[in-house]
Write a structure and sequence with these properties.
heterodimer, A: two-stranded antiparallel sheet, 22 helices, globular, B: mainly alpha, transmembrane helix (chain B), membrane (chain B), Tripartite tricarboxylate transporter TctB family protein (chain B)
């Protein structure tokens, strides 16, 4: 119950007017970002990060994480009212949410979406509250080999479990790791891959790359599409809200199943997108009349929204406990931690109790406040979409440039951002995933340091990664995941031959 | 299903036509990207080899880790190159149509100009020019609306960053004349 006392302490840290105001600002900005086409959770957080540079870390992370919660809520609004998913993870919400809006049940669908988002993140926050301190205290015993093994596990699971072509994930990841190495080598002090350029001396800043990759490229991609939209009006009355809430207990299996899927995929790098689809498909498979899915069934809104939020929230668990982000947005928050002078990893729970528990408490509070906020202000946010994209697009470009410049006060970074914008656009169009690149760029230096420190410790013997049970099993698991498609294929073949043999009898 | 309660309607008069001809196929772009990545891998790999990519008494040399990453990157892009070449004839997916390309350029070129102007005249002037110009020329929005929006947005940015949060942006002659 130590966690409970610390959580109360976290609430005490949080309950100041300044923090509460920042929380509201963050939520409003987040919903805004989630509703607008061409901006999403990761871009929103990356662009608004510079605003927090002069804040203390606790206020900064509270505001940023609220932007993230807001974006998660906001994505559902456009999915249901306009049939346009504001975020990739709300695609599954459109399947039943939009038909409901067409039948004049928009308010019901929105209430269902927001409520299930709330439930999903609540489950994930509970998980974080009780599991993260345990994992981090366990990880305090980790040395460099263990850490490198965990990094390896993260990278390998991306390659092995990702749905993209394997070589594209490998390209994306190795490029990220390479670019992370540009500049001064932290162990020896030598310069690497700078080619005599003084600008490259500083290295490639992670946040600059992210702003370009997600912000600028997203604008280019959005412009390619037809931006005309027709949407349903929505005002939510208290009667509808209470009506939906009264029926909630009927759907407890769906909610629980989706929360579980979301938490699992959030901690492992499956992500919110996969979670929302899986939540939807499983709800459909286990339902009695599965044909009615896609025609405006409320469970079809509950299932993906719960899973997406549970996943988006639980992605912060490995970031807090181990310093390894579970999603792109978590990676950006991790980059923020470093800017504010905090060293992510298990020591965070020991050295910065106020910060960690303030953040966890803000997840509870932010979700409650967010739920009330979206339920009451949906019509206002829906009307944001009336603002023509021709006005929104240049404003986003300017915000991106401000964000990129503010990080190191360098004009070069604005050009770098533009370059990464083009790279992001091309990569997205030919199916090279950006999440592994982001993760590799933010973890690159730490992974390399861990590797070299273990090598120095062992005198260059690679056997150090199998030197004890713990590190050995993590490393082995990493390789198993890397070759999972091959192993899975072999197992399937054995299974198939086995099955054909039994059926032929 | 009633369609009567549709309230929010936004039109997109300059939307790209669906039947616009393809400019370039995804396969071609994939081949170009893989070639570029391969060149990058070779350049970086060579640089790391020069820095020292083997072991010395204290452990791996600075170039060791990135050198092997360049090898992995090179291998990945070589595989991608071969895969793209093999399936080149079979799958001719469109990378971008002419109409789409025109729209993308309509954002990209102003953004490029914005970066150039930022370098010379400072970020705030550039941002005013970008927003008003883009709204007027690309969005065909009334001139006064464009100018007003651009001015208000730029002013809010200036107050937020320069005055309230003390985050300094690149500035030019205009700000100098105003004494900031």
């Amino acid at each position: 119950m130590e966690a409970f006392g610390l959580l109360l302490h976290g609430f005490a840290v949080l309950l100041t007017w300044k923090t509460l105001v920042l929380m509201m600002v963050g939520l409003v900005l987040g919903i805004f970002v989630g509703v607008l086409p061409g901006l999403g959770g990761p871009n929103g957080v990356a662009i608004l990060l510079p605003l927090t540079f002069t804040m203390d870390p606790t206020s900064a992370i509270v505001m940023l994480s609220c932007i993230y919660w807001g974006a998660l809520f906001g994505g559902a609004i456009t999915s249901i009212l306009f049939n346009i998913p504001g975020e990739a993870w709300s695609v599954a919400t459109t399947f039943d949410g939009y038909p409901m809006a067409q039948q004049g049940r928009a308010a019901e669908a929105l209430t269902a979406a927001f409520t299930s988002s709330f439930i999903g993140s609540l489950v994930a926050v509970l998980l974080i509250t009780f599991l993260a301190p345990m994992i981090s205290s366990f990880a305090l015993k980790f040395g460099p080999p263990e850490f490198f093994a965990v990094y390896l596990l993260t990278f390998c699971s991306f390659v092995g479990l990702g749905r993209e072509a394997k070589h594209k994930t490998v390209i994306s990841m190795s490029l990220g790791l390479l670019l992370a190495g540009i500049g001064m080598d932290t162990v020896s002090g030598n310069l690497r891959m700078t080619f005599g350029s003084p600008e490259l001396l500083r290295g490639i800043n992670f946040l600059v790359a992210v702003i370009g990759l997600f912000g600028i490229s997203e604008i280019l991609l959005t412009m390619e599409e037809r931006l005309a939209l027709r949407g349903h009006a929505a005002g939510i009355s208290l009667r509808v809200v209470l009506g939906v809430w009264k029926d909630l207990p009927k759907y407890w299996v769906t909610l629980l199943r989706s929360s579980f899927i979301g938490c699992w995929l959030g901690i492992t790098p499956g992500g919110a997108i996969a979670a929302s689809f899986m939540g939807y498909n499983l709800a459909k498979r286990f339902a009695k009349e599965s044909e009615s899915f896609g025609k405006g069934r409320i469970e079809g809104v509950f299932a993906p929204e719960t899973a997406a939020h549970a996943s988006g929230t639980s992605a912060l668990l490995p970031m807090l406990a181990l310093g390894i982000p579970g999603s792109g947005t978590a990676a950006i928050l991790l980059g923020g931690l470093m800017v504010w002078g905090l060293n992510p990893g298990p020591l965070l729970f020991v050295e910065h109790k106020d910060f960690v528990w303030g953040l966890i408490a803000s997840m509870y509070l932010g979700n409650v406040v967010g739920l009330v906020l979206v339920l009451t202000t949906v019509p206002i946010f829906a009307s944001i979409l009336r603002v023509p994209f021709a006005a929104v697009a240049p404003m986003i470009v300017v915000s991106c440039a401000i964000g990129a410049y503010a990080i190191q006060n360098a004009m070069f970074d604005i050009w770098l951002m533009l370059g990464f914008g083009i790279v992001g656009y091309v990569f997205k169009k030919i199916g090279i995933p950006l999440a592994p690149f982001t993760l590799a760029l933010v973890l690159g230096n730490r992974a390399e340091d861990a590797f070299r420190l273990s090598m120095i410790g062992s005198g260059g013997n690679l056997g150090v990664f199998w030197s004890n049970g713990l590190v050995g099993s993590i490393t082995t698991l990493a390789f198993l995941l890397l070759f999972w498609p091959v192993i899975d294929g072999l197992l399937a073949r054995v299974g198939v031959t086995h099955r054909t043999r039994t059926t032929s009898h | 299903m009633s369609q009567t309660d549709i309230e929010i309607v936004v039109e997109d008069p300059t939307a790209p036509e669906d039947d616009s001809p393809s400019v370039v196929s995804s396969g071609t772009i994939e081949i170009v990207v893989c070639l570029l990545l391969l060149a990058l891998a070779i350049t970086l790999g060579y640089d790391n080899w020069r820095t020292g990519a083997s072991w010395d008494a204290t452990g791996p040399e600075p170039g060791y880790f990135p050198f092997y990453l360049s090898v992995i990157l090179g291998g990945g892009s070589l595989y991608g190159l071969i895969a793209a070449l093999v399936s080149y004839r079979a799958a001719r997916e469109t990378f971008v149509t002419r109409a789409q390309g025109r729209r993308v350029m309509a954002v990209f070129v102003p953004t490029l100009l914005f970066c150039l102007v930022t370098q010379v005249l400072g970020l705030y002037v550039a941002s005013f020019l970008l927003i008003s110009g883009f709204m007027r020329l690309v969005g065909r929005i009334a001139l006064w609306k464009s100018l007003l929006t651009a001015f208000v947005f730029t002013a809010i940015m200036f107050v937020t960053f320069d005055i309230a949060f003390d985050v300094i942006m690149p500035k030019g002659p205009l700000e100098a004349a105003l004494g900031r």
